[in-house]
Amino acid sequence: MTLVLRYAARSDRGLVRTNNEDSVYAGARLLALADGMGGHAAGEIASQLVISTLAHLDDDEPGGNLLGKLEEATYAGNRIIGEQVEEEPALEGMGTTLTAILFGGSKLGLVHVGASRAYLMRDGTLTQITRDDTYVQSLVDAGKISAEDAHNHPQRSLIMRALTGNDVELTLTVREVRVGDRYLLCSDGLSDVVSAETIASTLSEGDHDKAADRLIELALRSGGPDNVTVIVADVLDIDFGQSRPILAGAVSGKVEDTPLPNTSAGRAAAMRPPRVEPSRPVSTASTASDASARRPRRHWTLIAIAVILVLLVGSALVARTVIRSNYYVGESDGQIAILRGLTGSFLGVPLQSADSIGCVGADGSVTTVDVGTTSDEAGCTILAVQDLVPSAREQVRLGLPVGSLNEAEDQLVQLLTNELLPVCEPLPPEASDEEPEEASTPALRQLQIPGSTCRTGPS
């Protein structure tokens, strides 16, 4: 019996993010998915470095040392991240999750760190075969909250372990492989918004390509607040499996969309002057016909100037209309706002103005209020960009993609629903020498860093 893999990999930046920090590799022997973090561009770099370091495992027969090869390659990728940060201190804080399978026929090796996931569909039953390295999962394991509560916990995005260049403990396991097994590797852009039941029903139907497409579609239909990446792989008993690897996400180097007008690349392309063709040489010889033609030429010159002026005025009006009809989520005086216009400026004049600012009620509902309104006046909490998770702050400062006012309001709701830091919990008083501190208190003090892992103020 010869067991081989048939696989599909898909990655999408989602409906809120402006870049894709996920990287994925799917090949005949290696399936690997990394979800980068650490702000604009830095997360992309971290995930690319790790996937690129593991890619060579797909070249040769892994033999019996599946875990040894995975462990060595993963730690090598972690070291490279650390070296990159040393060379470019601006990348400090970047990191990535990693979930990877090295296929060895009747067995496979699995390495895992972070909050991406691996699932196994066997005999119609879906099983999660990785454990989330998150603060919320540690609460579930300790019996302090239920798995259902974890899905809506305010600190569900707090990752305890990741590849950041620092020392990290990996989870390494060997699993038996059977014909008919279907494996799913996914970023939390899928598992956070699509239920396990829906994932199971999707994986139970159709081939691996259709299942991968459908999972991406489901994540986007659920709001697509994060990058979403999946690998679906089937174990088959056939002579030949797939051999050509699939690269997707940040590591593929492909641009998913053309530059938007409000990006620096888009503005540069839009303002680039047209190519000027060299004029043909004109004879300088004077003739009687030249003299007689001067007056008509002057006449047509005046007409041409008038036409150009009309076109310029018309173009200015059209440009103003286009600019004023665009809305986007961005930063205004440190607050999260809906702005009207385009990012940037022209000749020192801003191309945007704040239309409204985001506000969150005590029940978690999101609304907008007029610029200049205080939280007391609005009856809800007006949030600063600093109240967002670090990666979302950078996106807001750059400005999310432009669109209609309704689209910008939808983006704001997604942002303030999914990308806010949890509210810092009140810490218990310092324990006296006679009264030992509870075991959970030091961990809570260490985890709660206002502006980094939590935010101050009402929820």
TrEMBL record:
The keyword Metal-binding applies. Its EC number is 3.1.3.16. InterPro entries: PP2C, PPM-type-like_dom_sf, PPM-type_phosphatase-like_dom. Residues 258-292, 425-459 are annotated as: Disordered. Keywords: Hydrolase, Manganese, Membrane, Metal-binding, Protein phosphatase, Transmembrane, Transmembrane helix. It comes from the Bacteria. SUPFAM superfamilies: PP2C-like (SSF81606). The chain crosses the membrane at residues 300-319. It catalyses: O-phospho-L-threonyl-[protein] + H2O = L-threonyl-[protein] + phosphate; O-phospho-L-seryl-[protein] + H2O = L-seryl-[protein] + phosphate. Pfam families: PP2C_2. Residues 6-235 form the PPM-type phosphatase domain. Coiled coil: none annotated. The keyword Signal does not apply. It is an enzyme of class 3 (hydrolase). Residues 449-459 have a biased composition (Polar residues). Its cofactor is Mn(2+). GO terms for molecular function: metal ion binding; protein serine/threonine phosphatase activity. Residues 279-291 have a biased composition (Low complexity). This is Serine/threonine protein phosphatase PstP.
